[in-house]
């Protein structure tokens, strides 16, 4: 069955989700990265970007927060775009770990494999793959301009966050060097780790996240700028990775509840992709124990249910065509 929805329905769903969730008090800001502990906990925004490039939004949607692990999505796509989906599958993998995002155990259990580019190990490995290999500045330019192309607007690092993460990323250092030991780092390990830390420190708004996910939903063509950012065959690849591990050890619960491929970050952002339909995103800093924003996940779960965005459902949600303008 096909269910047509229009911009008004999306706007209404976002507003209702905002009203329902704004007083939610569960969760706690990440504090293992000192900068994140100080972000105001009551910030809350929701945005959606539609195939015609229209962005609908409610709440704190222009506040720049740390993209954190949502950045694993663009870098995974970039690596697949530069090499191929198959090569990323061979070099990194696409398995769920069922374990926390920064798990060292996951690397050992997967027989020395980083599992998926959407956990820390695989993301550091993906950063090591990004071309030009051996050229830190070149790699960084490739990543930051790829994220800007997905978002349709410039992005930059929040310096204070980058410093805060760099001063405290001991666990990630161990991951980088453990992967090096297993030949799963394809460039200098310290350089790969630094690129990963920097990409996590990029500031984005909920509107930018929604546009990034709309570009993914729209087969790699940014619906705002119309630029072809990546190969169309990569949309189902990245959506499947997001569905598999986007909420780490809570991914099964999330997928069961919503049927929406989505990726979270400890900055409080969540980006959800409805392939062929739209991108949705939400942001609120307090997290559950797996590092997923409590309020943002409640809001997106409501929207997914309300608009029938569940990819496993028998009702397919599509955007209604705009009424042609009368001559
Ligand atoms: N889940 C996350 O957002 C984690 C990202 C963070 N930069 C880290 O590596 O720990």
TrEMBL record:
EC number: 3.5.1.2
UniProt enzyme class: hydrolase
Keywords on record: Acetylation, Hydrolase
GO molecular function list: glutaminase activity
Keyword Acetylation: yes
InterPro entries noted in UniProt: Beta-lactam/transpept-like (IPR012338), Glutaminase (IPR015868)
Pfam families according to UniProt: Glutaminase (PF04960)
Reaction catalyzed: L-glutamine + H2O = L-glutamate + NH4(+)
Binding site for substrate: 69, 120, 165, 172, 196, 248, 266
Cited NCBIfam families: Gln_ase (TIGR03814), PRK12356.1 (NF009020)
Family: Belongs to the glutaminase family.
Quaternary structure, from the entry: Homotetramer.
Name of this chain's protein: Glutaminase
């Amino acid at each position: 069955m096909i269910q047509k929805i229009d911009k008004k329905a999306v706007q209404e769903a976002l507003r209702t989700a905002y009203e329902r969730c704004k007083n939610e008090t569960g969760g706690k800001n990440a504090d293992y990265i000192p900068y994140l502990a100080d972000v105001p906990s009551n910030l809350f925004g929701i945005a959606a970007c539609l195939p015609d490039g229209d962005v609908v939004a409610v709440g704190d949607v222009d506040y720049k927060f740390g993209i954190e692990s949502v950045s694993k999505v663009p870098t995974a796509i970039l690596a697949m775009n530069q090499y191929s989906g198959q090569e990323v599958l061979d070099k990194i993998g696409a398995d769920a770990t069922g374990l926390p995002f920064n798990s060292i155990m996951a690397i050992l259990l997967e027989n020395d494999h980083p599992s998926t580019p959407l956990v820390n190990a695989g993301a550091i490995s993906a950063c090591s793959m990004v071309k030009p290999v051996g050229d830190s500045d070149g790699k960084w330019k490739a990543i930051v301009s790829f994220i800007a192309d997905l978002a349709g607007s410039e992005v930059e690092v929040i310096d204070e966050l980058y410093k805060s993460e760099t001063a405290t990323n001991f666990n990630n250092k161990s991951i980088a060097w453990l992967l090096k030991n297993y030949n799963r780092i394809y460039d200098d390990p310290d350089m790969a780790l630094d690129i990963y830390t920097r990409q996590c420190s990029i500031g984005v708004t909920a509107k930018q996240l929604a546009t990034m996910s709309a570009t993914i939903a729209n087969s790699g063509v940014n619906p705002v700028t119309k630029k072809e950012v990546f190969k169309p065959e990569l949309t189902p690849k990245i959506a499947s990775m997001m569905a598999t591990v986007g909420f780490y050890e809570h991914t099964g619960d999330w997928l069961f509840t919503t049927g929406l491929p989505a990726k979270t970050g400890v900055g409080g952002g969540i980006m959800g992709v409805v392939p062929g339909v739209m991108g949705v995103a939400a942001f609120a800093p307090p997290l559950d124990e797996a590092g997923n924003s409590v309020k943002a996940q409640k809001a997106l779960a409501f929207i997914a249910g309300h608009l029938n965005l569940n990819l496993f459902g028998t009702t397919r949600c599509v955007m209604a065509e705009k009424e042609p303008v009368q001559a």
